Amino acid sequence: MVTSEPLREAYLKVDRAKFLPQQSAGFAYDPEFMDKPIPIIEGVNTTALTLGIKMLDYLNLVKGDKILEIGTGCGYYTALMAHIAGPENVTTVEIDPWMVKYAQDRLGDLGIKVEQGDGTLGFARNAPYSKAIIWLQCQRFRVIFMNSLLTEENY
User: Fold this and answer.
1) 79, 14 Cβ separation under 8 angstroms
2) Greater confidence, 43 or 152?
3) Which H or E element spans position 44?
4) What percent of the chain is predicted at pLDDT more than 90?
């Protein structure tokens, strides 16, 4: 259950199907795929819709939040965050060059630039960030990543 009204509004306005490959677009809201990832290309999947929405709900996003997203993927969750916080407040980093282009093709009209790089290093250019979300599996993050987040000292 979504507790954030801004997230609920974004969910109703941003069409997930536009962020999926044409052959998978029909699965965007299919009940069979709510708890399952949808393949984008070989070895790359979306985050299951229920998990992705729950993760965003935990962030309690509001307009003006400055967000760092690590692992852009197809760009759907990026678009939801941009709808809430404003596209100028979302920095998204993707390591895979093919996925950077894929997501940029879908996010460019929203005014979002997908940055290519290793998100575990953070992204200092737009730091500090008030919120961060990480869509990848990683054993550890480097201290430099943590330094790009807001703390009580720099808030």
Assistant:
1) yes
2) 43
3) strand 44-45
4) 75
